[in-house]
Design brief:
Largest sheet: 4 strands, mixed
Radius of gyration: 22 Å
Number of strands: 4
Strand content: 15-25%
Structural class: alpha+beta
CATH topology of the largest domain: Ubiquitin-like (UB roll)
Mean pLDDT: 81
Low-confidence stretches: 1-9, 20-31
């Protein structure tokens, strides 16, 4: 049988019409995602990879807010996502970010 993804004729297929299996997983999904370094008060915490089209760095802020943290500012600068907070909240936010990045 011929390779059906190259458009070649196989059993029960019309010549010149490619056959694509719609149930075949998209092998490129998540392979070309953008990577960002998460920095908290200028200290490296970990990497975040945007895996899907609707992923964004705002997801980090949303997660922190869901955890009850509102005393921070964030900014995307190149491939670095800078989060600034007071020393009072730094350890707690660092722990939350570590959990977030490890669960992704």
């Amino acid at each position: 049988m011929s390779d059906t993804r190259s458009g070649m004729m196989g059993a029960g297929r019309l010549p010149g019409i490619p056959f694509y299996d719609i149930n075949e997983p998209d092998l490129n999904q998540g392979l070309s995602g953008d990577h960002y370094e998460i920095m908290l008060n200028n200290h490296y915490i970990g990497n975040k990879k945007l895996l899907y089209e609707n992923d964004s760095m705002a997801d980090v802020d949303d997660f922190l807010k869901l955890q009850g943290y509102t005393e921070f500012k964030s900014e995307l600068e190149g491939d670095h996502y800078h989060i600034q907070t007071s020393k009072q909240h730094e350890a707690d936010i660092k722990n939350a970010l570590t959990v977030y990045l490890n669960n992704r």
